[in-house]
Specification:
Layout: H1 2-8, H2 14-25, H3 27-30, H4 35-41, H5 46-55, H6 61-82, H7 93-113, H8 117-128, E1 132-136, H9 140-153, E2 159-162, H10 167-172, E3 179-185, H11 191-200, E4 206-211, E5 224-227, H12 237-260, H13 262-278
Parallel strand pairs: 1-2, 1-3, 3-4, 4-5
Helix pairs in contact: 4-5, 7-12, 8-12, 9-12
């Protein structure tokens, strides 16, 4: 997403950062401005605007305006739909059916906007080559860890789910070069997850954190961290949104793993179909 790139400002020059700040602060003004006008407004130049547009992956300035306008419209619609209480005492069943898809859609788009492509590729490669994957979750996130394990195991990846710390396990476990630890935390500061990461420090394991960004306590202990924004809602519905955001990140990893060894996974699927037909 263009908006995400403008916020991250990765690889931007000072002049390009200046333009990105202005664009994010005046999204609907920029859509009406020419590249030359944007350069003058940001005290840069048309050439600098053009270079930034190319870094954003856009073919032309018009292409940038079109995509950015689309993103801003979608974000505005979601904010309008979710700005008030999603449900109340008068909410009817038909309303629930209308509201939930919006919440799901919002969760997916929020998660998608915060995914780092390079990080996902790195994590997928580590998981694909792993001799074992240890998944840690507590409370709500334990169920996500179990779902993740089930999905990975269908691809032949050995997994184990943990909801606490077993010091004997860490001390007695044989060292493996290709071990992966995945930790889930809604806030990013779960003490059990942080402690598990600390126990794994010093080994050759790849530690992947997936969770909230209200704290960087867990993030600091991980090799990589997939951040899922934790938003404040009413009636505990933020749990639903956060759960779907975390699960979306898992599904992205799972799907990328399927694609990384597509021929092998297709062959297994075909064999499974044959076995099922034989038992009928």
């Amino acid at each position: 997403m263009i908006t995400k790139q403008l916020r991250k400002q990765s690889g931007f020059t000072n002049a390009e950062k200046q333009i990105s700040v202005y664009v994010l602060g005046h999204p609907f003004d920029v859509i009406k401005m020419t590249a030359n006008e944007l350069g003058k407004e940001t005290f840069t130049s048309t050439a600098t605007v053009t270079r930034l547009i190319q870094k954003l992956g856009c073919v032309s300035y018009h292409d940038f305006q079109k995509e950015f306008d689309k993103e801003q419209t979608e974000l505005q619609q979601l904010q309008a739909q979710l700005s008030s209480e999603p449900v109340n005492a008068k909410t009817k069943f038909d309303d629930i059916q209308r509201i939930l898809p919006v919440l799901y859609d919002s969760a997916v788009k929020t998660a998608a906007a915060n995914l780092d492509k390079a990080m996902i590729y790195r994590a997928v490669e580590k998981i694909r080559r792993a001799e074992k994957v240890d998944l840690y979750g507590s409370g709500v996130t334990e169920s996500i860890a179990e779902l993740c394990a089930f999905k990975f195991e269908t691809l032949g990846i050995e997994c184990a789910v943990h909801n606490g710390i077993n010091e004997h396990y860490f001390l007695s476990e044989k060292l493996t070069k290709n071990k992966v630890m995945i930790l889930f935390s809604l806030t990013g500061s779960n003490s059990v997850m942080c402690r598990a990461a600390e126990w794994e420090q010093g080994k050759s394991s790849y530690i992947l954190g997936i969770g909230g960004d209200t704290s960087d306590a867990l993030k600091k202990l991980c090799s990589d961290y997939i951040s899922v924004p934790m938003e404040e809602n009413l009636l505990g519905m933020e749990i639903m949104k956060s759960f779907n955001e975390l699960n979306y990140a898992v599904d992205v990893l799972f799907t990328a793993l399927v694609v990384s060894e597509y021929d092998r996974n297709q062959e297994i699927a075909e064999k499974l179909i044959e076995l099922k037909s034989e038992t009928k």
